[in-house]
Amino acid sequence: MKKFAFLLDSTLATTKSEVEKKDDFFFLPLYVVIDGVLYKDMEEISLDTFYEKMREGYDVTTSQISSGEFLQKYEKIREQGYTDVFVFTLASKMSGTMQSAIVAGGLVQGIDIHVVETATVSAIGTIAVEQIAKFSQTTQDPAEIRAFADDVFSRVAIYVYVDNLETLKKGGRISAAKAMIGTVLQIKPILIIRDGVIDVIGKERTLKKAIKGVLDAAQKVEIEYAIILHSSQPELVELMRAQCALKYPLMPLEVAGLSPVIGAHIGPNTVAFAVIEKQSS
Questions:
Q1: Which pLDDT score is estimated for 171?
Q2: pLDDT by residue (tens digit) across 204-215?
Q3: Residue (of 61, 27, 8) closest to 261 by Cα position
């Protein structure tokens, strides 16, 4: 009988402890580097400390998980009696982490590795993988689980407010021309992350209008699950909560921080509304 494990990287996690307390779930961190000091993402530095340092202007970079680290993790999971591991990393268009997972999967023996293209990032990934793990209890066929996972992640979108696009520009996540929207013009950009790509979908003159615009964009789809994401900015979270209460009064909402690795690329003044859309009827 097959025994399935689910491995998430830190950019998809709510927190390390929240992931690891779930049955059959495992966690592996990327790294954030602050003024030359290496920290395990979501493990060795708190969100508040990281974002405070970022706002103070510390030099911040990131580092992906190596294939060797994935290999060691696969072997430890195999030792616990698992026959298959489903691996979930941030979008392949954003990082080489997924490729490291694939390379390690070709080296390990005695366990089957299934690396899933999430095409996304953030703690919405934890919610998606919870659905996938629940589905896995209905089948012994890894191909069916993989197909289900592909469907769930195809319905994920993240609607984002950032105060400017300079951090995204520095990391090559967005063009210099688009970055001008939030700097030269001094307006508030609204972004979407879908299929591993970040794009500008709107702009507003004020913070409150921008956060309302984030939810206006999300209202164009039917939502199955949603979560508020933030960069340790309580005032932004409360503004988003207030708008959610108006637009989605009956919807239960989780709140989670954006991991330092995500923050290093998107910036320290961010709030987002991540969703899993309902399946088309």
A1: 54
A2: 989 999 999 999
A3: 61
